[in-house]
């Protein structure tokens, strides 16, 4: 079963002081720069397009295609912005990547910036993770001192400055245009589009915004070739990705594998659900993706298959919940998070998340009646597709999916006048399905 793992981004995590330049270069680090500089920028973009790399931040948009949108006839400067504002509940892949091997990201930034002809790049990091900010800053300093950043990199004639920017710690700044607002010193709120960032992004200039894992994947594509990367994964979801298993699993952690692996396979690698328990529900891509159940254990974890199952691959944040979990309480906690993190710019999200939390809290206390479930779904319908950005849509996902799969558990709260769930003894609400 271990053959299903493909350690590429995580390959050097066990090395001695893997985060240092010396350790990274010892394993061939920064060799991709010379190979990229021997290509034209357009050839680098073509290689990334041919590899089939899709955005690893959740949306899954083709990375090379996004780079190709930059209008090279625009006289304004071009910018690359790396979205390292990892804030999605359950998502925990970018922070360990930046901690274990920050130079993988720095090298990816140089190659990617060269491809889009940017001479300034930014890494926007969530402000609370100060240890990550410091590690990135030191890696950038090492790269400057070694000639991997700055003027005339590797004698290529290409110049690049890289800035590590610490944000204020708002979930909304994971939305790319709100991130740009924060980077420019304003309150993090989504921008009206069009214009899109590729045309008028940072400082009204053409800008590419990519996730940490997307950019960190680029050096391996340049080093090993587009066909190598495209040879992994599935037909439409190429390559590998870091799958983050957390929750009620024996060995939580990061598992790097080709897209298309199943949760059943990952659970086998992780030692299964904790001893004496069985899977009740799980999220394939963080809390803003619709819940799935044990009947979906064998769904290939790629963009198309997870979408066909009624959810989204998202950031591959696999949160595992066993039969001791009250789904109503779990969904309420997520909804309270979205209510708190709403930027308040648009009415559907600002008011909608507040009302969702109120209605869910009433149901969790066993108050109200069955009609409140229809009220919840109606509230979700009034938010979905009407909010200014994806935060509102994400807030509805766990609610509508939990009602779909666990309606009886919601009704049981009403019947018992509160949460009837006894974690020590009850498995009454665990859906029928194979034990993990």
TrEMBL record:
InterPro entries named among the record's database cross-references: ComplexI_51kDa_subunit (IPR050837), NADH-UbQ_OxRdtase_51kDa_CS (IPR001949), NADH-UbQ_OxRdtase_suF (IPR011537), Nuo51_FMN-bd (IPR011538), Nuo51_FMN-bd_sf (IPR037225), Nuop51_4Fe4S-bd (IPR019575), Nuop51_4Fe4S-bd_sf (IPR037207), Soluble_ligand-bd (IPR019554)
Q: What is its EC number?
A: 7.1.1.-
Q: Name any one GO molecular function.
A: oxidoreductase activity
Q: Which cofactor does it need?
A: [4Fe-4S] cluster; FMN
**Reaction equations catalysed:** a quinone + NADH + 5 H(+)(in) = a quinol + NAD(+) + 4 H(+)(out)
Q: Could you tell me the keywords of this UniProt record? A: 4Fe-4S, Flavoprotein, FMN, Iron, Iron-sulfur, Metal-binding, NAD, Oxidoreductase, Quinone, Translocase
Highest taxon in the source lineage: Bacteria
- Which residue intervals define the domain NADH-ubiquinone oxidoreductase 51kDa subunit iron-sulphur binding in the entry? 328-373
Pfam families according to UniProt: Complex1_51K, NADH_4Fe-4S, SLBB
| Entry's family note | Belongs to the complex I 51 kDa subunit family.
Q: What does this protein do?
A: NDH-1 shuttles electrons from NADH, via FMN and iron-sulfur (Fe-S) centers, to quinones in the respiratory chain.
Q: What PANTHER family does the database record attribute to this sequence? A: NADH DEHYDROGENASE [UBIQUINONE] FLAVOPROTEIN 1, MITOCHONDRIAL (PTHR11780:SF10), NADH-UBIQUINONE OXIDOREDUCTASE FLAVOPROTEIN 1 NDUFV1 (PTHR11780)
What NCBIfam families does the record point to?
nuoF_fam, PRK13596.1
Q: What protein is this chain from?
A: NADH-quinone oxidoreductase subunit F
Q: Provide the species name.
A: Nocardioides pinisoli
